[in-house]
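Minutes, project check-in
Item: structure for the 118-residue chain
Input as provided by the requester:
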Amino acid sequence: QAQLVESGGGLVQPGGSLRLSCAASGSILRIYGMGWYRQAPEKQRELVALITSSPTYADSVKGRFTISRDNAKNTVYLQMNNLKPEDTAVYYCYTSAEMVAGGRRGYWGQGTQVTVSS
């Protein structure tokens, strides 16, 4: 089993910035991709950004959010700039990983709250 630990959420004013971090641990053989999803109240979970060999972004965050990855640390980051109230949600880290014991599957973090409000 891989474990994902997220950090960096909080309350920020519109136009502000936050940086989320997510570190994967466990007997990981290989990570295929890492990314971020979010879920706002009464809405479905949606992809924010994903990075494999190159990054992919939701249209709503293009130009404002940047995803990056430190392969040596099995860590993914999400730099969020020019935040808007509609970015308010619980942000979940996701990874697709193959374990030393075998098998490839997806893993989720526990979620971190991001609130954009004046």
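Outcome recorded: The chain has a mean pLDDT of 95.
No further action items on this chain.
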